[in-house]
């Protein structure tokens, strides 16, 4: 798949696909080609259908199935075969709400954090709604203490945006800058000051802290979800949250409507707001209240 591989990479570059997406799609197409044992251009739709049935039989996750589907569909689109996968239904990804930490849990995680370096990283991610990659790649010049904003550059879909720099985070950052004295990257690699801190290192540290705080289900990205949810619970306009998160559409941000604490929404059950009584007709028998049996 050498020539086909290079042509697919070129097409994705022309369309502005990120390096991460390019690598993922090439990996999945290579696996499809290995399954076929021949050029994908010589494959039939029935072979593609059998390939997906095999993936399902192996227990491949819905997300991975979706990525396989997207990669293969894109490959054939580049070769003017738009309808190659018409006989294979697009995999559905189950809708699951992400985990959200309450503020006492975030306090517990930060309290378990024993270094100024990581406390600053995690406080910044939560207070500004950053992705872990965005935090890792921040430059010192991206922090504007006067305007209290953070310039997030070349993020997902190669977009720039501004997000908020909170007062507590600004104070913490100033202490961090005085202690660590970064030159280019705000959070630099301990092995090379001219390179950003490895993302995996941030993730491992957070997992350790979350485990100590009895939230093993939490990940670094949970801080970003918590940022958005807590802003919404504080009555911040959904469109402002969308801009702060860097979402392209309001639909991506609306998931946080499902994640608010219901006890904070002042929603009254229709049973509670009605004159319906749940006590009438109850009889006491053996110390328990029971509904009378029909005669």
Structural class: mainly alpha
Quote the average pLDDT.
90
Q: Which H/E pattern describes the elements?
A: HHHHHHHEEEHHHHHEE
Q: Which topology of the largest domain does CATH recognise?
A: hpI Integrase, Chain A
From the alpha-carbon coordinates, what is the Rg to the nearest angstrom? 26 Å
Task: Tell me what you see in this structure.
With 295 residues, this protein is mainly α. The protein folds into two domains: 2-78, Tyrosine recombinase, N-terminal domain (DNA polymerase, domain 1), CATH 1.10.150.130; 103-262, Intergrase catalytic core (hpI Integrase, Chain A). The protein has twelve helices and five strands. The chain has helices spanning 2-14, 19-36, 45-57, 62-78, 103-112, 116-128, 132-136, 167-180, 199-212, 220-233, 238-245, 250-253, and strands at 143-144, 149-152, 161-164, 283-285, 288-290. The chain has a three-stranded antiparallel β-sheet. A hairpin with an 8-residue loop joins strand 2 (149-152) and strand 3. Helix 2 crosses helix 4 (62-78) and helix 6 (116-128) crosses helix 10 (220-233). The chain is globular and about 70 Å long. The mean pLDDT is 90.
